[in-house]
Amino acid sequence: MSEARPLGGRVFTIPFAFGVLVILIALFYLFKRFTLGLGPVTGMNDGYPWGLWIAYDVNVGTAFACGGYAMAILIYVFNKGEFSPLLKPAILTSMFGYILGGVSVFIDIGRYWQMHNVFLPWHANIHSALLEVALCIAAYCLILLIEFSPVVLQHFHIKDLQKKLNRVLFIFVALGILLPTMHQSSLGSLMILAGSKLSPLWWTNLLPLLFLIAALLLGYAVVIFETSLSGIAYQNFEEIRLIKKLSNLVPWILIVFLILRFFSVALQGALGAMFAGDLAGNIFLLENILLIAALVFFFQAKNRDKHSRLIWAAFCLILGAGLYRFNAYITGYDPGNGWHYFPTFGEAMVTLGIVAIEVLGYLWIVKRFPVLALPRKKGAE
Amino acid sequence: MSIQRRDFLKAALGGSLAAAASARPGLAASQGRDLPPEALGILYDSNLCIGCQACMTACKQANDMPVEFSGQQTTWDNPLDLSAKTLNIIKMYDGGDTPAFVKRQCLHCLEPGCVSACPVSALEKDPKTGIVTYDKKACIGCRYCQVACPYNVPKFEWDNPFPQIRKCELCNHLLAEERYAACCEACPTGASLFGPVKELRQEAERRLNMEPGQYHEFPVNHISTGKTQTHKAEAYVPKIYGADELGGTQVMLLSGVDFNKLGLPEVRDKSYVSDLEGLSSKLYSYMLLPAAVFGGLLYVAKRHGDHE
Ligand code: SF4
Ligand code: SF4
User: Fold this and answer.
1) Residue A379 belongs to a domain
2) Count of structural domains within chain A
């Protein structure tokens, strides 16, 4: 049997200190960004108005953070209660991913001091997919905080509120499934307006559907990857057993994704473009080789019952599906006129700093709060 | 126009905004290519342009724009392309025998991607004149308009810690003074011609039917003033750029050289705005689908919620 309890142990370790260093460097570049403007710090330009911060931190980052969403679907919609030990850690990762996605938006937008205009109804443009993304992500951040709050309440023994919250939690659970479905697909809809500037290897009217499935895949892949590593590190066989069950489902979703993906490219009449030998063609091939490799690893893991294969499968899936979403924003995007984009060192450091906050925050919380489902302590009842 | 999902979000934000939504100068998308009732635009004729760049100077003065230096010198305004400092530019194309000019600026699309993209309605299409305007007090600087403009027109002040988006607004601010786009006021040959889009389209058709080598009268500055000049007609590529492009535009171009060579992209007729709106109205028609999904989710979450 297992129960959720704090992992314990020291928080301030050497890797932790390294993470803090990365965050300090990121802060230096953020200072430059807010005093000099976006141009001197980033590689973005009028041809590529979106760079790493939107394409990776927001677009890929929130999809990595879909573990909570993906597990909630499994547990509540398909009534697979057995997976609930995986939910809390997944929600924790999601909470960090989404809130920091929101922070990245603030860092990236030029007129951040007017960001609240997004919430003012008289400014709202009901046709803008970006407005929907912004509102849904903001709302979902709140939902995640509420969904995670029982852990904090439990830690501080606030029984009263805990009980009250439990009674209405189902509303937040339902919203926690609806909102990501809406904004994760809308992150794909966004690029429909890029039109002919986006290579037909990515541009399709199916963008919203593909983005949604990619978010689900990434959600499951991150849960499998994270839990496998922590399961091995902490000899948590219960979690590993659950992960194996979860891994029976994922390859089928991946197959659906790949079929839709190639179908949509065929629909654009662009199948030949993947062999063009240019950047878009090559990165398309890489993206899909990774996804097919993930598929092979998943089936191998199933047949041979080898856990290491599963970690590889999740790893390839994270890279492949993450690359898909990144390419649809940057690599597949060509505004013409000789524009090009490559992130600067400072820009990349800010992204790394955000990843560092995520990792350090996660470690601190699982060490101090009852999140991970760990085997019962010997002698404890 | 069907009620969209974001109507719901707006309502959820606290105000009954149905009225505001319908009063908002909406997109022309659902009405196809109908021109706004008093649509204003520009017809630029590359064959008449002598490359004097009088329009560029006039534009900078009328819009209070700074000079832009390229290369080492810091004396002459010599932008290389549209930028946050240059809203209108004449570029020369050297195709071998005779050079050709092209004027780049916002085309004031009939189904503007930038307007559809902007989350905070900082970019709006005037319901009467069809001019696409920008309001810096609304803009959050997300730059989605830059991604969504098929012609890469909106520009961002990258080197400013308090940046804005800049783009041609067809001298909207001059209309109240009984003036019109400064570039057309300044053009000495009629290459940049201002006026109601309907009349400009007829004028463009007329030019396409002219016999090359013959002398004709060409209106100058503003098509409605009746001022004309006599020019020898030259051969045109048989196409009005902006008549059909992505649903059509209010700034149109004629040229003797392939538009593609002049840097104007070859695009399809159907706008991507209509793709997006068709999709969302299907998925979210009357908010029924999301509402139904939410109802279903509430039910299953309540029923299956006892796992913790
Ligand atoms: S040309 Fe670009 S900026 Fe101008 S109206 Fe069209 S989409 Fe908007
Ligand atoms: S940068 Fe400003 S004008 Fe452009 S889409 Fe964003 S908010 Fe609208």
Assistant:
1) no
2) 1
